[in-house]
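Below is a filled-in request sheet from our internal design queue. Each sheet records the structural input a requester submitted and the sequence that came back. We keep these sheets so that new team members can see what a complete request looks like end to end.

REQUESTER: design group, bay 2
PRIORITY: normal
MODE: inverse folding
CHAIN LENGTH: 122
BACKBONE (tokenized):
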């Protein structure tokens, strides 16, 4: 499978999932984007069309707290912990998980489990 085909297939999976996954102010969407080197997480209210908060492995606060590689499972778990803390600051208790067309495996799974461990319900 070519790289362009893989990207197109992920994009199709993502669009298909977004037909049913909608975030609200009471229960925002936890959106995950995974690149080769980094992870990005956003809390999105689809009703108003705005992002409530975001964390990523590229932010300075993450790099200071967790030096080293930002593209592995250990970093994903650490980012999930930070995302859970951010959700508590924003007074978010439940979210709708949007894996972005990625398999629920590896870094995406580690991130989701860390957010759940922080007390956020999916």
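RETURNED SEQUENCE:
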């Amino acid at each position: 499978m070519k790289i362009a085909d893989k990207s197109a297939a992920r994009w199709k999976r993502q669009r298909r999932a977004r037909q049913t996954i909608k975030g609200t102010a009471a229960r925002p969407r936890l959106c995950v984007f995974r690149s080769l080197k980094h992870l990005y997480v956003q809390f999105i209210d689809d009703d108003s069309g705005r992002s409530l908060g975001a964390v990523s492995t590229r932010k300075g606060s993450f790099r200071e707290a967790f030096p080293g590689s930002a593209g592995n499972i250990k970093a994903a778990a650490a980012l999930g912990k930070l995302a859970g803390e951010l959700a508590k600051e924003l007074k978010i208790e439940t979210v709708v998980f949007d894996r972005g067309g990625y398999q629920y495996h590896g870094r995406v799974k580690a991130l989701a489990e860390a957010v759940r461990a922080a007390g956020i319900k999916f």
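SHEET NOTES:
- The domain at 3-117 is CATH 3.30.420.100 (Nucleotidyltransferase; domain 5).
- The first strand starts at residue 29 and ends at 34.
FILED BY: M.R.
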